[in-house]
Every structure is written in C-alpha cells, then in structure tokens.
Amino acid sequence: MDSQKNLEAEGVVHISEGGLEYSIYLPDRGVDYIQTYIFNQKLPYERDMLINMCSHLQKGDIVLDIGANVGNHTLYLAGVRQAKVLAFEPNRHLADAIRRSVQLSGLEDAVTVFNIGLGKISAHAHFEKDIPENLGAQKLEVGDGELEIARLDDQKIPSPVKIIKIDVEGMELDVLEGGRNLILRDRPLLYIESATEASYRQISTYLAELGYGYWEGFNATPTHFFRPLASISLNEQVERLIQREVFQEYRLREQLRLAYRAQNDAVAKTRGLEQQVGKLSADLASKDEQLQEAKNALKTAEETLQDKDDLLEKKAATLEEYRREVEVIRTQLDGMNELPPGVVRIADSVQPGSSPKGTMEGLLSKMVTIKQSLIERNAELDVMRMRLTAAEKHLGSIVDSTSYQLSKKIIEAGTSLSGFLRLPFAITVLMGRGVMRRLAKGKNQAYTRPLNLRAKEYIIREIKARPALERPARRALNWWRAKSGVADQMDVALPEHRGRAVTVIQGASAKAKYGKAKKRSPFASEIKVATILDEFSYGSFACEFQAIPIEPDNWRERFEREKPDIFFCESAWSGPDPVRRPWKGKVYASINFKNENRAIILEIIEYCKYKGIPTVFWNKEDPTHFDDRVHDFVKTARMFDFIFTSSEECVERYKLDYNCKHVFALPFATQPRMFNPLEVREERTEDIVFAGSWYAQHPERSALMKRILDRFLDDGFSLKIFDRHFGVDDKNHFFPERFQSYINPGVRHSEISEVYKSSIYGLNFNTVVDSNTMFARRVFELASSNTLVLSNYSKGVEEMFGTDVIFVDREPGRLKALNSADVMAMRERVLNKVLEKHTYEKRWQYILDCIGYGYRENDNALTIVFRVSSDEEAEKAIFYTNQLEGVIPRVRLLLLVDDLVLDSNVAVFYQKYNRYGHGVVSESYLKNYADDLDEIVSTPNVLYIPKCSFPPSDWVKKAVNHLVYAEKRYICFDQAEPRYRISNVDPSKPLLCSAEGMRALLRKGEEGQWSSAFCV
Known about the structure:
This is FkbM family methyltransferase. By secondary structure, the protein is α/β, with parallel strands linked by helices. Helices cover 47% and strands 15% of the residues. The protein is built from 34 helices and 33 strands.
C-alpha cells in the first residue's frame, strides 16, 4: 500500500479496462492538461476513439502511434488490446516517460519507443515554442536543432501494419508523404488529426489519390478515420453517406432545439430576476422595520438594565448594612465570651469580713442579669444571621435571574466584539434555561411520582448496588425494546453508569455469556459485526459474519441502521479501500501528533459502551510495534473490551504493563474461498515462487534472502519473483543484479492465489522468527493453495506444521533430496491441517468463545443419501452410517429407493427402515411429487453414495472441509483421478455437495451450473 502511495506521488496511475490494466507515468500532471485529466480521472484520454480502434484490432496486430505524446494511445492499445505498438515521439522527456510506463506495465515485449519525429524528408528540427500546459501541441520547425526527423518509409517496419494514428500538430501531410510506400503496401486504417478545415481538405484530397475515403470523426480536436475504399462495398459507402446526412439533420434539429430552449430560459430568467427584484425590495422594507423595532427593543433593554443596576446597588448597600450590624454583634458576643474573667473580678471585689450570704446574693443577682443579657444578645445574633442569609439568598437569586443574566450579556455585547458575537448563543441558552426551570417547577408541584418512574429508580439502585447485573440488564432492556418497538427513552436513566461497561466486563469472567445462548442463538455467520479492517483482513473475515464496514463519515448512520452485535477493529493502517484510505492515521496513537487523532475511534467505543455492544481489537502488528510510540496501536487496543494479539508473547505484557484483563493470542489464517487447491493450469512448474519485496534497510533479512535465493539457483532451481515494489525508484527495494531476470510485476492480493498455484513450491520470509503465533499470513495461504511452503525458520511455523514445512536456512539441501511422492504427501498433510484448524471461520468462532458471545456453530450437518434397491444394501448403508457417526458429528441417513423398485415393494422399505432417525424416500416420488427437496433433506450438505460405493470415513472427514470453496461443484471420490482438477460429473461415483446440488443431481437436465466436479 505504501508503494502504491509512493507511485501515485511520483505521478503513476493504474488504469483498468475490461479486466486488464496498465500503469502510466505522468511527470507533468498539474501542468499539462492531458496528463492532469488522466491523473485525476484515472481514465485514458480520447477513450471513445481508443475503443473504436480496438474494435478493428486482434491480439498481436501492429499499430504505429505517430506523435505518441505521453503514451496514452500506446499503452491502452498494448495493455488492453494486446497489440504490438511502435511509438514515435521526438520529445525526449515524453519518450522517456513512455519507456518508464512500459516498464511499470510489463509491456516491454509489446511496445517499442522511437525518440524521433517523422516527416517528408530526413532532417533536423526544433520546437517552435515551449507550451508546458500542452506538451503535445508543440510544433516542429524543420531546419536546425537537436531533434531528428526521418521518413516513415526509411524505417524497418514489420508487415502488415493494421492501424496508423497520426497527431503531429500540422505535419500530418508530411508524415503521409514520407510513408506513402508503407501505406500502399499494407493498406492500414488511418486515424489522422486535422485542427483546421484547410488541413482536412489537403489530407482528404491526398488520401483520395491513395484510394482512401473518410469514414467517421472523433475528439474535440477533430481526428478523422480513413478507410481503404477497396475494403468498403458500394452499398456500405452509400449507406454511410445517408447516415451522415441523417445524423447531420439530427444535429441541426438538436442545435435548433437547444437554441430555442436557451431563448426560453433567458426569458424566464429575466422574468425571475424581475420578480426577485420586487421581492428583495419588499424584503428590504421589512428589514428596515425590523431594524427599527430592534433599536427600540435595545433602548428598552438599556432602560431596564439601568433600573436593574439601580436596584442592584440598593441591594448591595442593604447587604453592606447587614454585614456591619453582624460585625457589631460579633464584637459584642466576643465581649460576652469574656464573662468569666468579669465574674472573677466581681468575686475579687468582695471585701474581707463582709457577709458571705449578702455577697453570694449580690453575685447571683449580677449573674442572672448577665445571663439574661447574654440570651438577649444571642437572640439578636440569630435574627441578624437569618437576615444576612436571606439577604445573600435574595442577592443570589437576583444575580442568577434570567433578566439579570440577559442584561449582563447585553452590556457585554455593547462593550466587546466577542460579547456581541456570542450574544445570539447566550440568548438561546438563557431561553432554554428558563423553559427548563418552568418545567421543573411544574413537576415539583406534583405530589405523587408515577409508579413506573419509582419502579425504574428502584431497579437502577439495585443495578448500581450489584455491578455484575449491568450487562444482562442492558441486554434484557435491548431485547425488550426490539420486541416492543419502544424508543430509547430509558437510556438516559443511567447517565452516570455508562462508563462502567468496561469495568463490568473486566470484573466478570471472560467466559460469561452475553445473554446465554437461548433456544435460538444466531449462527456464527449470522452475527452482525461493524468492522474497521484493512484490505487483506477484510477479504479474509468478511464472509464469516455479516460484515458492516464503517468509515469516519458514516459510522453512526450505519450503527443506527444496521444495529451491529459486535464492533471488531484491527490495527488498521488505511481500511478496506487501499486507494481512498479512509482510516489512514486514525486508528493508532502517535507521539508525533499534537492533537488527538483517534477522536472518531474513541467516540465509537463510547457509543458501544453506551449501547452495550462488545468491542474487540486485533493487533496484528505485535510484537514488532508493541513498543512503537509513533504507530501506537497498543494505546488504542487498551480502550477495547477484548484484545487479540498476533503474538502470544505479548499477552502477559498487556496484562502486566497495562492491566488489561481479557487478552488472547490470535494468529493469521487462510480464507479457502480465495486460497484453495483447485488447479488453474494444466501443470504446475517447479519454479520457486516468491511474492514480496526486497528490504535493503534490513541488512540481516537482506543477507538471509540473498543466501537462500543464491542456493536455489546453485541447486538448479529457477526463480519467479513477483516484486511488490516493481517499478518504484527506491534503491531500498532493488533486488540484486543476479535476480533481475527473474523479476515480474507485483499482483493484487485477490490475484495472488493464481501465482501460488502456478508452481509446486512457494517461498516465504518471516521477519519475526521467535514467536509461537506470529508469522506471515503467506504460510497459511500457500498451504491452502496446495503449494509446498519453503521458509526461513520460525518457531511458530515449526510448532504448527513440524517437518511438513522446509526451513531452507536450516536445511539447505533437503528440498533437492525430496522425491515427488514425498513432496505430494507433505503438501497434502499441510493442506488438510490448515483447512481443518486454521481458517478464518475457526478464528471467528475462537473470538466468539473468548468474549463469551452465545452462538451456534455454522450448520455443517450431513445427510448421507444411499441409493438402494435391496434389504442387503440398506443394511450395509445403516452399518456404514453408524461407523461414520463416530468420525463426523451430526450425520443423518436417507435411503433413496431406486426408481426401478416396484411401488408395492417401496412400502416395505418405509415400514422397515423409516425409524431410528433414518429416512426413506423413493426416487420416483422425488421426481414426480416433491417440489422441494428441503422437505426430505434438512441438512445443508449431502453425501450421495450410489450402489454401496462406500468412500473411507477418513476421506469423508477430509472432504467436508473442502465444501467451503466448492461452490456449485461436486466433490468426487475417485482414487484413479487426479486431485483438485475440475472435470465433468460422474453420477456413478460418490459425490459430496450441498442440498442444492443433490436436487440438481436427481432432476437430470436441470443441473444448470452443477455440471462439474473435482476429486480430493
């Protein structure tokens, strides 16, 4: 993906047409208008003419592109129609661009580029003037200069030439005169540009002398198609002339109609403008009135504001008086607190010898007086405190009142620009607050709360007291809503509880079911999953569930409409579209970003928590990027409920370093629908196939690759390298010189299966070699393509596949020592192991098990249909089925009574065998009466066995794993036939298929696509 981005940055675009594609290098995009058009539209220029040219060409026909410009016509005709093109372009800059495009497209054998101009005589020339915005429009001035001009007749042009295209900015007639002999020799079709009528008349007159006639025209700058008159019958010429006259009449009528419509549109537009002027005048008067009203309102508001200010000043003065009184009382109270020392002084004042009784009575009298005074002062203090509290509350209510706040905002609007700009928003907020207060006031007047609200509050309190109840409660609520159609009104009942979703998950067992599988849990393939996956992972996982790919600008709409059950995100670099790259730089965190770049991902996670949707993250970049803080997928993974890592060794690091509770290892796998053993050619080669890149920036890996590739060549093997960075001008990706002759352009991921199946041997290189689970997905894909895996050593590969993978760095001589039988056996063992245990269907089920999501395994139940005509055959069928039940789960027997059996005897079969889970049906009944086989066969898959031709049980167990990619083909048991080669159906052999295939088999003549089979 990075290489594609780099190529596009250099000006290289890929153009696809009719299943074929080519690359074109556009060095002057953004300046030259033709190159800019091709770069922006990803389409060829003058496409209609190119399609017409292709209609006259066969594969290998010779075409001369004279005035090739940047190679638009050359590359299209060579890449799409597979013609042999000789391109003539005098501008060296453009000729070099064509050569690079040819190299990028792998068209070296189809295109020859001549850096010369063509004319009437051999000479030299220079460009009349520089036109950077249209390089193809630069005219040649013959005389002196560095550009070479030659005659077409002097060139060694192979015969026959089918088409000549000439676009040489006014020198077209010179080119024709210089190529007269070639034109008379091969009588090619001519496509000639003529910018002016005078030029066309000259060319037409000259070509008439050579026996050519005008046929049709193309393009904005007229390009005329001339054909040899000898190849056109008189009737065709007459019919063409009539057509031209008819077309000319249609064009004139269309021009007249357009002119009439334009006139009517102009009249209507004038009337519309007059109406708009009148309406605008009325609007202007209305706006003046509104402006005057606004001025009056502002004046009233200012007066009201002044009144409020006066009132506020009075209240502030009153409050200040209250505060001063409180201070006085506090001072008095402090004096009262010193009462005990005063009493002591009174006691000290008692004279010696005075009467104790009199003294005591005097003291008691004074104490009573003081105590009464203290009580009075405390009462006064309480009163003052109450007055102070009331005053402060009153002041607060004034400050918090809507009228005061509105007055304050109007003052701010009159004193600052920012206040003026914020005034509309502030008024809206204050109006909303006033409405809410009135509503709240009305609710508070109700004496009794409704029963349903009190019940809801009670439930919420119970859930808060028991956090483990939150998940099942939310799922029950969602189920009830779905059944009853009630809107999400109750979601707001737990606003402070939303953030607990992850805590609840982490506090519960990872095996606790999200709503345990009730009677009808969905099949694993029926679960709806919102996904953020890169191209390869999306292609691998998308058919294992109901995939809902989301993008930054549509995720919420898709969530609301599709209502996914799970959110599944991987360490995505760009998303499923490698061209638009909607998720580029939005999934990983980075220390290089000043602001949060993951805002959308975080918003999705919060949404899922709120809705109770489990969130799953697969970090396929571990362990390489685990400590990478520039591309920090780990920081994102920690936000999800469940984490899956490609490296088993990182599981504990997530738990210990980041306190993540639910972390699991998830290796790559294969998708058999894309990578399967069905052969695509007659014979596989023994080339060592490698689809990948050279990385000079990784010296150790580069040294290892060179050593291994050298050893293959020294041992007599040939290489076939599909370079992912083919054509990229980056020395880090240049293969060493010795391997250059073995290099081919890279292919898309969707086409790589054919590359893998082109040879017996497939080469893999692992960057990570010491992980139990992390190694290249290429290993699984080669294996399921029935290609022997050659790889550098990897701990994980060895643990999964043992000696059935050849580690070429540790066993350099092993491959050469193997015979063909050994190689075939190794390929077969690895193929069956991968199809049984390492598909993305199995990986998806593993994810569901780990997160505790209730599901049913995809229904792979099997009905064995035996064609029988006797009791002996029926007994053998029952015995075979009983044996098979120990090997394959969910097996059912259906005895198909041969239509040769008399109807009177069919009833005996029903009576004896239609029991114990077995079924009986007559073939004649199915043909004549049963419109739908589903009434008889209830399983998705069928094994049809004619006349006791029992396949071994281990073959059945193995063959069932191949159904996933069989599509509308039968899987046949025939040990004499080669495996995985598509052939015609033989109904006398055991056949494994879907129930639909069984229906086609019984109703001969209605097979449709069910006409082929392959053996395993």
